[in-house]
Amino acid sequence: MIAQLNPADFAAWRDRAAAGLAPAELPVVLDVREPWEVQTASLQEDGFRLLCVPMREIPARLVELRDTLGADRPLACLCHHGIRSQQVASYLAQAGFSDVVNLQGGIDAWTHQVDAAVPRY
Questions:
Q1: How many C-beta atoms lie closer than 10 Å to residue 58's C-beta?
Q2: Please, is 75 exposed, middle or buried when counting C-beta atoms within 10 Å of its C-beta (0-12, 13-18, 19+)?
Q3: Sequence ranges of the domains in the chain
Q4: Going by fewer Cβ within 10 Å, which terminus of the chain is more open, N or C?
Q5: What is the mean pLDDT of residues 70-89?
Q6: Is the Cα dihedral 106, 107, 108, 109 positive or negative?
């Protein structure tokens, strides 16, 4: 079962996750939306690394993700409403990533709970 992270609790998760990492490393938000969606509304890096990889590209880039991030890096998956990101989070967990959460409600919930300046679409 993939943990569900409420956007309102993201800052606390990010800070806990960063405490366990080397100084040069950051927790990762993996945005699995399509490029046009990311262009429409996106998060700004703030104590985390933002990585945008559309859901359809995840299987082909799995080795790259593991090599670049490591299988133990804290990952929070993000999409529009939390459905695609849940699927990607489950896929990554099955592929051996050990610290994966789903940002529940996606960027739409983020706009409501964290940053009203992020556009809704």
A1: 19
A2: buried
A3: 3-72+84-113
A4: N
A5: 97
A6: positive
Which two structure tokens, joined as six digits, stand for 89? 């989070």
Tens of pLDDT, residues 28-78 = 999 999 999 999 999 999 999 999 999 999 999 999 999 999 999 999 999
CA distances from 109 to 7, 9, 40, 43, 78 (A): 7, 12, 15, 12, 10
Note the CATH number of domain 3-72+84-113: 3.40.250
How many residues are recorded in the chain?
121
Token look-up 């799995």 returns 62
Structure tokens at 99: 């610290």
Taking the C-alpha atoms of residue 78 and residue 66, their distance in angstroms, rounded to an integer, is 18
Contacts for 84 with CB less than 8 Å, ≥ 6 apart: 32, 33, 55
Whether the CB-CB separation of 69 and 50 falls below 8 Å is answered with no
